[in-house]
Each structure stands twice: as structure tokens, then as C-alpha cells.
């Protein structure tokens, strides 16, 4: 995983012009708060997703972060107003504005990350980490193994690229959103995970991370060394992964879609790497190797028929498809799964197949394909 150079939190900050309303006898209200923090919502969502491994939980924590930050701003302004009582209304309002400006400029972004990270750490206390099937058990060699979902397992979820809001380069930072890397991050102790993200992904210096997390710079550096060591193999492998806009990867995915829709098992298998992996949360089952994946695909076509349509999308800065199959009545194509692909120079190296209503909702997938080409 490439390490980011630290950029000043104010480099892309909104205008410093702020307005604080001070109703007579009432609390100080920071009216510009929403406008100031709006540019940070997307990157905070990505940050919370990296920490938690689930989009819906990340959205909840971003809302909580914004609420906490707003209350902190207004409490700071209120304290300033009370401290200047008796100096006149004009002076009070002016000092309140300055207090809010000092609290919000230029470290507002850093403070938001601190609040969000602490909220994530609190949410993770006593909770089992999110996983993929390959992190729970060994591969299966039985293509006809029972497909029983394990609903008691907190499964890792994919992240819709559509939620990046045009900030892909800034939010993704060369592979830091890849599904395999996010999965590996979940295996780290939460504090190490937080340090790794704040230091290597976001580029904050050790002293600033220590201040955000209420620890020492030495503790931050120690946690960072251990986290880097734990993720060394995964990070190196992710450097060779193609993104959804990579030309060669796009051409390979076009061939994959055609072969799958034709129910051409040999054609699909030919596009896989020799050590390709297929896993299917919430089923505690996965396959390793091109041949094993092909045998399971034959079973899938036997179970669901050979009439499929795949709709291209993107997840975790990787190619993905929504898979629809013809229903039993032969009238509609109904949603089956979301599939997220890891594409390397030699072909498709991993296909993580999600069958989860929350994942479908996050990607806004229609339960029935509206138009069939």
C-alpha cells in the first residue's frame, strides 16, 4: 500500500468566512457548519468504511461524527460568549466568531477525522471483526457442498464507487480501498488499523495522530510498524491489481461478461488465473484454483439455468457486475448477486460474490432488470 504524503488539512478547505448567530439568551449557533464540512463527508465515509468494513455502519458513524463536531463547535462558541459577558453584545458576537474560526481553521478536517476515528474505535469495542469466507476456513474441493448461509458471521461488505462522489483519486489513494486490503485491515487490532489509515493512507504525522487518538507519538510509531508488517504481503500484491478504468482490465471484463451470459464455462475459466479464488458471503464456502471455480460454475448453471444478464458497475475501485438470471416463469431477470473482481495481468484472480440485501441496497440494485438488451 503506497503511503501518502501529508497535505495540509486546509489545502482544499471551504471558505474561512463563517457566521455565528447568537439569539438573545439562547445558544450560539454555527450557521455555516454544514457548508464547511460538506466537502469532507465523502472522504469520512471512506475512512469509516475502512475502519468498520460495512457501508451502512460507516454512514451511521459519519452522521454521528458530524453531530458531535457541530455540538463541539457550538459549545466552544458558547464558552467564549460566556467568558466575555458584560463586554457588550457586539464584542461577544465578534469573539464568538473568532472562537469558532480558531476551532474550525485550519484543523477542522483533522478534528473531524479524530472524532470519526474515536467513534469507530468505540463502535468496534467487543465486536467480532468482519471477514470474507477465505479468512474463516480452508477452500472446498466439493462443488456440490451445501450452500447454507452463515448469518451469524459479520461479513465484510463492498463499497460502491458511486459513493466516492468524484473524489476517487483523493479517497482511494492507490489501492487503499481494495477489497482484499480492507479485509486484511479488519484482521488488525482496531487501534493499529486506525494508526495505519491515519498515517499511511491519509498522511498525518505521528505527532498529530497521537493527539487525535490521545496517545504518544512513540506508541503510534510502534503500532504502525506492526500494522505494516502484518499487511506487507497483501499490500505488495495489491500493487498489481487493475482498476475499473484500466483499459486491459475493461477488455477482459467484456470477455468475461460475454462468456458468462453465454453460459460458456470453458470460456469463463480461460479468463481466470491458475490460482483464482471464488468466495460467496454469506456462505462459509470458497474455492481455490481455476478448475475448482469452473466446476462450481457448472453447478450454478445447473441450478439457476443458463439465461443470465450481467450489468457492469464498480466497487472498491475494482470492476464489478450485478448478475441477473431468468426467473422460473421465464418472464423477468431477477437479481442474484453482486460480484467484485480482482483483475491482474494474468486474468481474474478473485471473484467475491455477495448475496446480501444490505449490499444490494447500498449499490441501489433493482430487484428486477428493467431492460434486457
TrEMBL record:
UniProt GO molecular function: DNA-directed RNA polymerase activity
User: Which residues does the UniProt record annotate as the domain SnoaL-like?
Assistant: 254-350
Keyword set includes Transcription: yes
Compositional bias, Basic and acidic residues, is annotated for 74-84
What region holds the RNA polymerase sigma factor 70 region 4 type domain? 179-231
Which residue windows are transmembrane per the record?
A: none
Report the InterPro entries cross-referenced here. ECF_Sigma-70_Domain, NTF2-like_dom_sf, RNA_pol_sigma70_r4_t2, RNA_pol_sigma_r2, RNA_pol_sigma_r3/r4-like, SnoaL-like, WH-like_DNA-bd_sf
Q: Is Nucleotide-binding there in the keyword field? A: no
Instruction: Supply the EC number(s).
Output: 2.7.7.6
Q: Where is this region: Disordered?
A: 1-27, 73-106
Give the family, as the similarity comment puts it: Belongs to the sigma-70 factor family. ECF subfamily.
Query: Which PANTHER family does the record associate with it?
Result: ECF RNA POLYMERASE SIGMA FACTOR SIGJ, SIGMA 19 FACTOR
The name this protein carries in UniProt is RNA polymerase subunit sigma-70
Amino acid at each position: 500500500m503506497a503511503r501518502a504524503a501529508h497535505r495540509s488539512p486546509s489545502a482544499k478547505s471551504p471558505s474561512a468566512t463563517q457566521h455565528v448567530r447568537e439569539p438573545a439568551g439562547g445558544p450560539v449557533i454555527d450557521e455555516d457548519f454544514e457548508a464547511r464540512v460538506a466537502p469532507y463527508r465523502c472522504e469520512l465515509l471512506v475512512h469509516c468504511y475502512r475502519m468498520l468494513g460495512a457501508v451502512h455502519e460507516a454512514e451511521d458513524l459519519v452522521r454521528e461524527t458530524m453531530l458531535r463536531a457541530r455540538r463541539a463547535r457550538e459549545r466552544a462558541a458558547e464558552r467564549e460568549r460566556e467568558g466575555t459577558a458584560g463586554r457588550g453584545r457586539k464584542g461577544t458576537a465578534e469573539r464568538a466568531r473568532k472562537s469558532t474560526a480558531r476551532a474550525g481553521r485550519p484543523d477542522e478536517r483533522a478534528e473531524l477525522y479524530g472524532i470519526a476515528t474515536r467513534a469507530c474505535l468505540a463502535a468496534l469495542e467487543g465486536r467480532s471483526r468482519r471477514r470474507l469466507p477465505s479468512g474463516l476456513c480452508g477452500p472446498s474441493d466439493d462443488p456440490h457442498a451445501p450452500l447454507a448461509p452463515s448469518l451469524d458471521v459479520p461479513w465484510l461488505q463492498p463499497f460502491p464507487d458511486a459513493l466516492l462522489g468524484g473524489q476517487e483519486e483523493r479517497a482511494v489513494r492507490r489501492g487503499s480501498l481494495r477489497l482484499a486490503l480492507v479485509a486484511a485491515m479488519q484482521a488488525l487490532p482496531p487501534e493499529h488499523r486506525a494508526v495505519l489509515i491515519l498515517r499511511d493512507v491519509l498522511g498525518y504525522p505521528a505527532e498529530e495522530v497521537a493527539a487525535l487518538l490521545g496517545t504518544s507519538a512513540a506508541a503510534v510509531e510502534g503500532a504502525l510498524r506492526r500494522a505494516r508488517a502484518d499487511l506487507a504481503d497483501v499490500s505488495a500484491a495489491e500493487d498489481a491489481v487493475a482498476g475499473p478504468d484500466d483499459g486491459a482490465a475493461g477488455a477482459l471484463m467484456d470477455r468475461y461478461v460475454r462468456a458468462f451470459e453465454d453460459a460458456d464455462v470453458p470460456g469463463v475459466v480461460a479468463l481466470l488465473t491458475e490460482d483464482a479464488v471464488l468466495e460467496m458471503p454469506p456462505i462459509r464456502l470458497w474455492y481455490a484454483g481455476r478448475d475448482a471455480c469452473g466446476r462450481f460454475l457448472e453447478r450454478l448453471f445447473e441450478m439457476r439455468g443458463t439465461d443470465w444478464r450481467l450489468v457492469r458497475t464498480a466497487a472498491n475501485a475494482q470492476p464489478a457486475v450485478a448478475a441477473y438470471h431468468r426467473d422460473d416463469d421465464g418472464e423477468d431477470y431477477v437479481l442474484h448477486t453482486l460480484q467484485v473482481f480482482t483483475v491482474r495481468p494474468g486474468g481474474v484472480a478473485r471473484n467475491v460474490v455477495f448475496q446480501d440485501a444490505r449490499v444490494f441496497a447500498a449499490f441501489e440494485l433493482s430487484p428486477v432488470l428493467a431492460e434486457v438488451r
